[in-house]
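anyone else get weird line breaks when pasting these?? whatever heres mine. first is seq + tokens for prot A
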Amino acid sequence: MTTIKGPGIFVIQYVSDEAPFNTLENIARWAASLGFKGIQIPVDKRMIDIERAANDKEYANSILQTLLKIGIQLTELSTHLQGQLIAVHPAYDILFDGFAPEEVRGKPKEREQWARSILMHSAKAAANLGLKAHATFSGALAWPYVYPWPQRPQSLVDEAFAELGRRWKPILDAFDDAGVDLCYEIHPGEDLHDGVSFDRFLQAVDHHPRACICFDPSHFVLQQLHYLSFIDHYHTRIKIFHVKDAEFNPTGKQGVYGGYADWKDRAGRFRAIGDGQVDFKAIFTKLALHGYRGWATLESECAVKDPIVCAEEAVERINSFIIPIANSEFDDFAAAAGSSREEARRILGIADS
């Protein structure tokens, strides 16, 4: 068992062109002032020059030193937006173009190549920064067909995952060379959206040792998946943990699919930590029992509460969930004498006469 590290904060929802959210140093000072001990940052030019971090160890070290002086630790980098672009179904081309620079918009192949280069730089940058895990999205080729009507040929799904594997395998190899786990957030809209789809992907990448998971229970609530059982199945692959709450309140008019309602009006919606239905005490206990060694990192996307307030409240709430692991068994004081085979046989009354 291990004590989970934290609290950390994923700042992708906070990054902007306005201070204090416009530079890594500024946003780190803000996070540290609230009591966060770790910060997970997106690969965003306002936060990090990813190509320079991949090729200039002095630059990477300067980032770590800046954060050290502030009193906060870099936990992971994130390429959620860029990872999404590794596999985009044509139905989403226009919508996802906004995640890429202007010069590759409207050019799916060039956009994919750009995203791949960012992932490759991120692997080297993570190694230079001394990081052990990296968060991303898988992208999606089969997602438009997630509901099996009209009926879909099995070959469609098979080929989608085969292609997904072909695209990600070289990237996974690069992360393996860097000694960094690549953690896919299990998320609706991605081809890796539950355990069954993750299993398909593992098969497509030959059960690659670096194909790991960013676990976010809020997406399990919205899909009505059993997040505690998921941990039992995949704990060896879970290397990043996003602490995000959610609630699911179906009505006579809408359920999982939400009826195209706005977020605040959906049956399933994200909430501030402690305001939703996620049993974090059970999650933190199960992760600790399974020996999870990573961070507990806030991701704030509440449909109701102000995001600054969400961050302010989250520090105390996450701290309350972290379990300081005991160094001994509770009943060690009453440990029975004798541990040899002969002593055990004598206690059982089966000792040799």
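and prot B, same format (seq, then tokens)
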Amino acid sequence: MEFTNVVYALLAGLLPTLLWLWFWLREDHLHPEPRTVLAMSFIVGSLSVVAAVVLEKFAQDIILDRTYQYIAWASIEEIIKFIAVAIVALRSRYLDEPIDAMIYCITVALGFAALENALFILTPLNTGDLARTIVTGNLRFIGATLVHVVSSASVGFAIGLTFYRGAFTKVVAAILGIILAIALHASFNLAIISATVTSTIRVFGWVWCAVIVLIILFEEVKGVRPKAA
């Protein structure tokens, strides 16, 4: 494994996700989060890939059915990303408005996607398969990366929607958000594994529809206000 290939893979994983991060941060342009906290969220999201890889390997060894493997992998990744958000942001004094929960969940998800994409790109890059490297990078950019964003944002939306509610309501909302995130992520995984070219395009179309819904959800969360006394 050449060092230059590792650098190229990291850049190929990092730069597109930073572009997506810039796009989503514009949703919170009126009260932007501190760059240091956002950077920490992104880094912790990236590092959590290591834990995910270890747990996914364990799940692969004990779960023989491929369908259940993909569901288990989706569950592991979504739970780990939520733990990363909980560690960095959920108790932060900077999480002071409903939309912040979505911002931090998306930032962690993009950090996770950055390193995961780099690992996927590194394999064809090491074999000198440039065409496959480019195709893999592009597909990750328009597909898998957005699945991470939409899935994690579902958790952030659930937390943001109950931002001014009691602790019990917030916990229930977070759990429901994680379940939805796992369902979305697993559905994408299962749809892709045996997809033809036509059906893959259809799946990616649904992902982009989910992105449009996500933009609408941002507007919904922006309207969340404390209950009148």
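btw re prot B: Residues 133-138 have pLDDT under 50 and may be disordered. The longest helix spans residues 130-161.
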